[in-house]
Amino acid sequence: MRKFGVRAIVVAVLAAGLSGVAAVTGAGTAMACEAHQGDSREFAATLSRVEPGQRGVEVLGLQRALRYKGYGLRGTGLYAENTLASVKDFQRRNGIVDDGVVDQPTWQALVGPLLPGRTSTPLLPERGIQPGAHDPQMMDQLANAFNRLEIDAPEESGGHYNEAWQATVRVFQRNVGIKDSGIVGPLTWNALFRAVSISGQWGC
């Protein structure tokens, strides 16, 4: 994950506000992880069945979660051949029937063992972002989510939601099955944050 600037750290800690979980970055991360032992089995139980050919947020989250396990998936949001091969390999390694269907046994093996601080979703940002807007606080939260998903995003834009950022958001929206308007509203925020939760990249 790319390093955040000072402003992004402040936003991640103060504005995003993890529900009941300390949002800590940098030197404080280890302390936050130690303070929240347990697992994410309850969160994993909320995840839906995913099959080859599907597209959506949970497919993208699945791809990123597998990527962090060492599988070389790009995170397209489409459950195609590369994802199928990775899922089957993960299933075999974990004593699960390798049929490529991601249901509770696979979700529990992949997401369930994660510390709860990694999957606890922060409150959604308080407002959206319209094309051409200048909103440094919301842009920092947008960059934070993309960085956690390791999705290539434009460099520092001075808080402007410029054309490069709009194009990046449109690709994400198409990948998860949202209308590619380029407007960052509740559906897009929810998709971004849920994908980060599934991939286990919050907090710790």
From TrEMBL:
Cited Gene3D superfamilies: PGBD-like superfamily/PGBD
Keywords in alphabetical order: Signal
Domain of life from the UniProt record: Bacteria
InterPro entries: Peptidoglycan-bd-like, PGBD-like_sf, PGBDSf
Signal sequence annotation: 1-23
Domain Peptidoglycan binding-like: 56-110, 144-192
Pfam families cross-referenced by the UniProt entry: PG_binding_1
Protein name, as recorded: Peptidoglycan binding-like domain-containing protein
Organism: Allokutzneria multivorans
